[in-house]
């Protein structure tokens, strides 16, 4: 969900490689990306770019990786074939890559999200006069004030490697192979699988196209406990985006027409 007002890196696209130069690295973004790419190359080859070289101590730090084919899912109407490939990619990611103690916790995690959304709710942002928006905010903030989320955050399940950014621009559909590849691992780390799936399902990038989140989740092997966690985290992330979509919010300059009202309907449906 993290909103960035400017790009955190520069990308140099070559025929077969991508050179990524970081503009910020205070959260060890280059180290996180390099560690994730190496884990993925060993345990889930083809799912993400192959790591080639890195200069993590340079200014700016640089990572060189292979260039993958495909088109971003953001802005697409993702049909059943694409949704199935995305489900397969996420299943492979979460079940193939072992998580060691040395891997740091992903910066965008349940505790960070809960604090972030509660902080935005406390600001009482101006979201206009639409009654459905007002109802979604009222119902959402009442739900947010309960203790269920605190208990959920305090009792995580065994971790997975998480990408920690559900922006659909980070998922490439390769029509030639029928696979989805995953990019942008600079925020990755130890993560809660349910939170990661909720982040993909509810990231605001869905307003630029269409991804049937319910269809996606139906194709994942979720236990009842995981399914319940995903539902709660989806509510949290969707509410967080609603609170930021107002005319004075950080995404106002790029909100498509009707985004606020559609997000309110989404929150009400999830609640």
From TrEMBL:
<keyword id="KW-0808">Transferase</keyword>
<dbReference type="GO" id="GO:0016740">
    <property type="term" value="F:transferase activity"/>
</dbReference>
<feature type="domain" description="Aminoglycoside phosphotransferase">
    <location>
        <begin position="18"/>
        <end position="205"/>
    </location>
</feature>
<dbReference type="InterPro" id="IPR011009">
    <property type="entry name" value="Kinase-like_dom_sf"/>
</dbReference>
<dbReference type="Pfam" id="PF01636">
    <property type="entry name" value="APH"/>
</dbReference>
<dbReference type="InterPro" id="IPR002575">
    <property type="entry name" value="Aminoglycoside_PTrfase"/>
</dbReference>
<protein>
    <submittedName>
        <fullName>Aminoglycoside phosphotransferase family protein</fullName>
        <ecNumber>2.7.1.-</ecNumber>
    </submittedName>
</protein>
